[in-house]
Every structure is written in C-alpha cells, then in structure tokens.
Design a protein that fits this description.
The protein is built from 2 helices and 5 strands; from the N terminus they run E-E-E-E-E-H-H. It has 103 residues and is α+β, with helices and mostly antiparallel strands. The protein folds into 2 domains: 49 residues, no CATH class; 47 residues. The strands form 2 sheets. The protein has a 3-stranded antiparallel beta sheet with strand order 2-1-5. A two-stranded antiparallel ribbon has the order 3-4. The protein binds zinc ion.
Length: 103
C-alpha cells in the first residue's frame, strides 16, 4: 500500500513510511511538498492509505528483471513467478490499506 495526504497546497503527497497504522506515524510532522516545496504541518489523521495499484505489473517487472540476470530461460520463469507473486499480494494490499484507514 501507499500512504498519502492531501497537501495544504492542494497536491497529493505520497509518504515513504513502513507504518502499518496511523499510530506508527508521528502525531504531528512537517512535510515539504515535492511538487512546489511548500512546507506544511500535518497530523497523522491527515494520512490515508491506498492499495498499491499495479502490484501485478510490479511483480512481473521484478520477476522479469531477476530473470534477465539469469538468462533467457530465467527470464521466462522469472516472468511467471513475478506475475503469480503480484496476484497474491494484490489481495492483501486492499486489506492492509483498509486496516490503516480504520486505525
Ligand atoms: Zn504542493
């Protein structure tokens, strides 16, 4: 999942954080918008989670890259492994995002 908040400047700002619930984020924090460098103060209640879209594609690319290093046969196997890994994680993505949003 990806964490984001609506910036005071109006931009949607994605956060890089391993937090699984709002309690794992600081209560208040300063954040600089990567789009226009505007700094603002935000509360963890301003943060929302969304399931990471394109998990299947991400898994496939990852598998493909791994396969690329191993040669042509690895590429085919890697692609298949990546696709099934992506499908499996996609289900849990939504559950994780919902859990965060309800925290
Ligand atoms: Zn902005």
């Amino acid at each position: 999942m990806r964490l984001y908040l609506q910036g005071q400047c109006g931009h949607k700002i994605y956060l890089t954080s391993p937090a699984q619930t709002r309690a794992e984020l600081p209560g208040w924090f300063q954040l600089q918008c990567p789009h226009d460098q505007q700094a603002g103060y935000y509360a963890n209640q301003n943060v929302f989670a969304e399931p990471e879209s394109g998990q299947t594609a991400g898994g496939a690319i990852l598998g493909g890259l791994v396969g690329l290093l191993a040669g042509p046969i690895g590429l085919i196997l890697g692609g298949a492994a990546g696709a099934s890994f992506g499908a499996a994680t996609e289900k849990t993505e939504l559950a994780r995002a919902n859990r965060f949003n309800e925290s």
